Amino acid sequence: MICSITLNSDSIGNFYAGDVVTGVVVLDLKNDQKLESIDFKVSGVCKANWSRSAPTIPYIKIYSEKKKVLSILIPNIFKDSFKGDLMPAGIHTYPFHFALPADLPSTFESSIAKVAYYIKIKSKPSYKLRKAVPFTVLGNVNLNHVDEILMPTFYDFSKTFRKSGSFRICFKTYKGFAPRQTIPFEITVVNEKKVKIRKIVVTLIQKLRYNVKEGYAEEERKMCYVEHKNFSRNVAELCFFNMEIPQLIPSSLNTVDPMIDVSYIFRVEVIFPFHLSLLGDVPVTVATTPVIHYEFD
């Protein structure tokens, strides 16, 4: 008995919250099989688990939760092919379709938490046939109707040195984008005392907040970075560079009370050879639909 599940997904194998998923189940039987039914199930599970030290016995507290975010059951999908309690030999097909809710969390996995989706085929009795195929769901985030996301935004960060006056940068970029877009950076450096700069690093950071009934945990992940190193040591100068946005799951905008809350920032760091670094964070939003920005200039 051979069972295959084929999904009609996009070019990189993803589905988006709110989509209708289509595909086909193919069952190839070499011999007649005595079965009660063959059921089709779609499941989505979100779970988190971590521990922290505690001041009292047993000196450790465990935070754990698991919940279903998707459950669809279609019983006895090959009922028209049965002859009594026998499934006859041959090739049997079942085209399927089902809708994904618009507020589903994105597929995700870390050392603390996981969101996973599966299509499962199971017979009765279950030992005859059990088949599970995972599929990827991404939250559907489109920012093209938000005017402030489409235009460049400016952020000022400054630092005062004990004997070298003040130092300031103005960071210009877009604060919303999608994977595989190229995001430009323009940095205006105002360096009154011409302090030596080693480099400016811009890092895209994924911020994660895991929420369960007993508490929460937070984590940061560095997704990619770019740096600029060539400086003139003038009082004022402009720096231009850009970042290729990698494949990412979107920000958690459309999910109500998510167990895994995903957000992003650009962390801007000016590194000096003889002084502490200047740090600044810029909140950004990752979409699934490419953002059609206004002109950068």
Compact description:
Keywords: Sensory transduction. By secondary structure, the chain is an all-beta fold.
The CATH architecture of the largest domain can be given as: Sandwich
Structural domain tally: 2
Principal-axes geometry comes out as elongated
Compute the average pLDDT.
Answer: 91
Radius of gyration: 26 Å
Number of strands: 20
CA-CA gap between termini: 63 Å
Number of helices: 1
CATH fold name of the largest domain = Immunoglobulin-like
Order of helices and strands: EEEEEEEEEEEHEEEEEEEEE
Residue stretches low in confidence (pLDDT < 50, at least 5 long) are none
Roughly how much helix do the residues carry, as a percent range?
A: under 10%
Briefly, what CATH class of the largest domain?
Mainly Beta
Family: Belongs to the arrestin family.
Protein name: Arrestin C-terminal-like domain-containing protein
Organism: Chrysodeixis includens (Soybean looper)
GO cellular component, one term: cytoplasm
Written account of the structure:
The chain is an all-beta fold and 297 residues long. It has two domains: 137 residues, Immunoglobulin-like, CATH 2.60.40; 140 residues, Immunoglobulin-like. It contains one helix and 20 strands. A hairpin with a 3-residue loop joins strand 9 and strand 10. The longest helix has 4 residues. The chain is elongated. The protein starts with a strand and ends in an 11-residue tail after the last strand. The relative contact order is 0.19. The model has no long low-confidence stretch (mean pLDDT 91).
